[in-house]
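Case study 2.
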Amino acid sequence: MNTRHLIIASAIASLFALGAGPTFAAKGDMEKCAGIAKAGKNDCGTATSSCAGTAKKDNEPEAWIYVPKGTCDKIAGGKVAKK
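Prediction:
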């Protein structure tokens, strides 16, 4: 491993140690929030798309993403999707 890779790896490890890394919530702590996904960034299929990442445009009413519970109600245009 060269010096550059070592420095980058050390920096990333430091961020995780400080709690700046990704946080993963249990599925029970998440809810589906529809109407806020960017094009191509939805988490699962809808009536008009077959799988994740297939939303054709931003803010499609049926396209949803997982967000922490209670967050969707705080987002303009977001609505909690049925499970």
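The helical segments are 3-17.
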